[in-house]
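Hmm, what's this shape?
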Amino acid sequence: MPPPWILTTPASRGIGLHLTRHLLRNTPLPIIATARTDLDGARARILDGLDVDPQRLEVLQLDVTDEASIAAAASHCRARFPSTYLHLAFCVPGILHPEKSPAQIDHAKSLETFRVNTLGPLLLAKHFSPFLPRKATTLYTPPSSSSSSLPAAATLAFMSARVGSIADNAAGGWYSYRASKAAVNQVVKSLDVWLRQSAGDKAVCVGLHPGTVKTGLSREFWKSTPSEKLFEPEWAAGKLVGVVAGLGPSGRGRCWDWKGEEIPP
């Protein structure tokens, strides 16, 4: 069997871009990255300054709010990887419209939040989970001579957030964003139940919380966040890859922060 492959979506900027760069540097596998527009620009930003084989990277058009584009990207992957499986997927779409009070809730913005943050990952799972291994699949073992950041089990990783925890919610606010990320945690759990049935311990689903990362999503809060709690995206990407690589089947179906500590639902 040829080596498996990796998916990072979206990957044109922010933490998705830096996850892709980290995985190119620290794994030997081919990577499918996605962007809504300007595929050449996204590819150039991902490869900028890296000493890697550029043929390992392919950037596909995908918009998580457009199921047809998700299906088209999956169809391309099916043709490119006909006899191997998806070993690692980081599904990290996210937008934030912060609301301090119920009066600030906007129907259109709230609907957009759920379309991107919750339905986006769910549709990615619909079209890309068939590429994950089954119980009969022989899993990839990295060459003993390589230093790899890959998890032993195939892993579908969704971007959650600490504010999606109901048990941890003491501050309130951010109604739509909190609810969308709480829903992501439920999606993670349900998908993992399905993977346990279809793949046993050979494929798992987890949620991730990267902390406050210095990306466009959190720009409004950079000044109010203590410097020691505001993370550079390259650093956060490395932490998340390390967490996923170290979890194993015992960590399946739950949400983990960048320190490898579980966040309660």
